[in-house]
Amino acid sequence: MYQNVLTGIVLLICSFTDLRYKKIYKAVAGGYLILAILGHTVKPIVSPAEVAAGLLPGLFCLLLSWISREGLGYGDSVLVAGCGLSVGLWPCITILFAAFLLAGLWAAGLLIFRRAGRKKEIPFVPFLLLGTVIYWCGMTG
What we know:
By secondary structure, the protein is mostly helical.
């Protein structure tokens, strides 16, 4: 429960700053990583191997950030790594899949209705937050 609340709060804060300032603060993202690790030392919800494996989606996103010259920002990738550390590998993959799908649909809508061009930057963290909410709904449903 702690990890889910932590993830929700951090993604809510970062969604606001991503939408308003197009920025993810390093202190928030770094603090999230530290608190996610500390949470597992106090009350583990997944095995240490699952926690370590949870970093894989974040590392993949960091690679995408590097290849795309920050088409996906480094801050977004650090948040994905924190999400993986916090909730584990498979929940993080589910959240990330939902986020990419929703962001893609949003971008397609912007293009179809001529609200933006191909080079338009869209904030990604709100889609991570929506993906997390979708994951939570699937957990309880």
